[in-house]
Amino acid sequence: MSTINKTYFQNARVGLFTHYTYATYAEGKGHNWGGTWYSADNSRGAVSAEEAAALFDGEAYAKVAHALGAEYVVFTAAHAGFNLLFPSETMKRTGCTQKCSESSDVIAKLIAGLAPYGIPLVLYLPPNDAHDINDAELAQMGWTDDAARMAFLKELIREIYDRYGKDVAGFWFDQCGPTADVCDCVRECNPDAVIFINTGITGNTEWHPLSDILVSEYYGSIEGCDSDTLPTHYSQVNRQIGNWWATGGKAPTDARNLYRYTVRTVATEGQYNAGIAWACGPYLNQTWEDGVQPLLLSLGELLHAHDGIYGTIPGKAYPTSPNALLGSDDWGVSTESPDGSIVYLHVLNLPKDGVLRLGVPADGTRFDAAEYNGCPLVLTAVEDGYTVVMPQDCDRIDTVIRLYRCV
Question: Which residue segments constitute the domains of the chain, with CATH numbers given?
Fold first, then answer.
């Protein structure tokens, strides 16, 4: 596997983003939204951080991530109520022993489960959630001002790296992130760590100066949508399947729809920001929302069955603009090998007459050969670009044609 550092994540194409939460929002602060349900037919949340952590099955979760084809996982160490799903000495020092598990450790389970597949783990933390913790706990935790809160966060990060070492590949910080000294603390503990900092929601273009990745946390659910009509973006995209945390949702579409959106995201101009991380996770009893797990497995089968996704960069000869849609008259999108020698045409809409008409390459490149599944295709240079005679055995999901640049 490639070295796990920020370059790895910048070039990753597919991830899995999971909010697995206990007591997400605090009572008495205008919120009482709870967290992950116990099961589809039992809407109670966990009775404690210990129960939530004890029930989690890291091996089963990792199998799903692997089957999806995830190149990384982002998982909540704590959400809005800052309830930690591992036995934190930092939290226990404050006296808020209820805000961490007693002995069960979700992070350790994740590391052990993901290790056989070589999938790196990034931990989600919300560094500015003082407004979602009750006043008594805020006082105990010492979150009396911003500086005190950041000091607590640095202590916690040091504890995490003392416990897990570089098995924690980095952090995904929400709510405009922490201060620079907190990021420095991450780098001191793990110089290879990746830092994601979210400053916006949909189609975010505000790149935090301390972040390695441009993030759009919430790019909306795909429910009820033909994904061709949804815009892509060059930030990390996190689209929901079901709910942010498992609370009675269901699979909103089919694998073909998810696959087409994934490919379009991967191909989007400027997408060096970890691609798309599909957002979903298990109930406390470790089942998944209705149809979600089979949907992930089916999407993974499609991703593994098609060329030109993993290990590629966005197409330069035939670029896909950010926020682009895919109309019925558009043939598809393109990706390229990192050295630029191969262009992968993802033909998502097959030409009715069997001839693919390509415009003039945007980067002025020239091609001398085309193939599909190892078989040559007829490639012709014409005045306004190129034509390719499509194969007889086209793939109705994605016919991936290789174009070879002239040497």
Answer: 6-311 (3.20.20.80), 314-405 (2.60.40.1180)
Q: Are 290 and 249 in contact (CB under 8 A)?
A: yes
pTM score over 0.85? yes
Q: Which two tokens stand for residue 59?
A: 């091996």
Coil vs helix vs strand at 354:
coil
Q: What does the pLDDT look like over 21-36, one tens digit per residue?
A: 998 887 767 666 779 9
Structure tokens at 270: 């400027």
Nearest-angstrom CA–CA distance, 3 and 23: 36
Tokens 């002025």 appear where? 364
Q: 106-114 and 58-68 helices cross at what angle (nearest 10)?
A: 50
Could you give the CA distance from residue 124 to residue 21 in angstroms, rounded to a whole number? 11
- Residue 135: name the closest of 174, 92, 96, 89 by CA: 96
Question: What pLDDT, in 10s, does the model give residues 100-125?
Answer: 999 999 999 999 999 999 999 999 99
* Cα–Cα distance measured from residue 110 to residue 77, given in angstroms and rounded to the nearest whole number: 11
The Cα 17–Cα 35 span in angstroms is 16
Nearest CA to 156 out of 146, 144, 171 is that of: 171
- Could you tell me if 260 and 348 are in contact, meaning their C-beta atoms sit under 8 angstroms apart? yes
Residues in the chain: 407
In contact, 348 and 332? CB cutoff 8 Å = yes
The C-alpha atoms of residue 116 and residue 119 are separated, in whole angstroms, by 8
- What is the distance between the alpha carbons of residues 389 and 371, in angstroms, rounded to a whole number? 10
